[in-house]
Amino acid sequence: MTASFKMKIDSNLPQIPVTRSNQASQTVPAKQEANSSASDDRTIKGQESIQQRMLYWFSRAGISPRQPGRSNQELLTNVRKRQQYVAAQKLTNLETILEKAMNNCLTSGSKEQLDPDWFFNYIQMAENIHSQPMQELWASIFAYEVSQPGSFSLRTLKTLQQLTQRDAKILRKAVSMALSKRHLSTMQLISGFTQKPSVLSFFRLSRQRNINLAQFGLSYPDILALMDMGILFGEEIESAELDLNKRQEWLFGQQPFHFAPRTNGLLFRYYKFTSTGTELARLVIGEPNQSYLEHLKQLMTPQFEINT
User: Fold this and answer.
1) Distance between CA 97 and CA 135 in Å, rounded?
2) pLDDT recorded at residue 107
3) Which of 143, 206, 208, 282 is 20 to 30 A from 84 in CA distance terms?
4) Nearest to 281 by CA among 173, 190, 184
């Protein structure tokens, strides 16, 4: 078919005998042309899809492509339309958050009144929260703050305002592995412990036992991201030497986690939650990471007496 077709469009060329080798050599370019055409189609469709997504997101902000020859009057009309659209969207966001906050089951609370400055700062931030999961988070904050004024600082709200859904997932993973001391709000993410050499073995190196947090879903880039967000302090911390005669009483979620060192020279290494991180951690709903806890117990057992 290819040879006869070529003869029709160029009858002055000498005819080439059609052999198997000629057929193969003439067929390959046709296949290549077909593949190239299909690739071009996919590229065009991909570009159209990206352009459609661009148009969709700008339309969410009340913006459409500029029309050729647009007059100043039409420009001002578009400005007014966008202002009305944005105002309506902000109002819808606040109405949604209020509805979700009203559904929170908080039956008791403090008699202290909500700080008006806190409230109106909250409104200015919450009106720009569009995604449903983050709206639920902001609703929980408002319900909690009304119940217990002073629970969330404006600094925490500003941090939360910058959190994406991905950031919220990282925070949830960190909280699922965090321990807190009984009667204290401070939260810590234990990353290992060190056995310091005794006086009799002064020239021995310190023995370190490390926990690979990435094994439980929290990678080192995740930890750096939490530091950048102001949720964790900026470096790993080493505790003071643990008192041999003092029992440590901690909580893992709501589970008691008590331990006491068997020898001297033991100290923990951990990442500490900031006050902002601790406040945000109250909002995280989820089960503690039991795999992490079991691994921590196994790591500690030779040097610690553990009670849970």
Assistant:
1) 6
2) 66
3) 143
4) 173
Q: Which residue has the tokens 């449903």?
A: 132
Q: Model pTM?
A: 0.72
Higher pLDDT, 112 or 39: 112
Compute the mean pLDDT over every residue in the chain, rounded to the nearest whole number: 83
**Predicted pLDDT of residue 45:** 63
DSSP 13: S
Q: Which two tokens stand for residue 180?
A: 């807190």
The larger pLDDT score, comparing residue 177 to residue 111, is at 177
How far apart CA 182 and CA 259 sit, in angstroms, is 13
- From residue 197, alpha-carbon distances to 57, 194, 206, 266 in Å are 60, 9, 6, 9
- Per residue, what are the HEC states of 191-255? EEEEECCCHHHCCCCCEEEECCHHHHCCCHHHHHHHHHCCCECCCCEECCCCCCCCCEEEEECCE
Place of tokens 């008590």: 258
Domain boundaries, the chain: 84-162, 171-307
The DSSP call for residue 14 is P
Of 166, 167, 164, 145, residue with least CA distance to 154? 145
Cβ atoms of 270 and 232 within 8 Å: the answer is no
Residue whose entry in the numeric block shows the structure tokens 């005819």:
15
Token pair, residue 173, equals 């993973």
What confidence tier does 182 reach under pLDDT thresholds 50, 70, 90?
confident
Contacts of 111 (CB under 8 A, 6+ apart): none
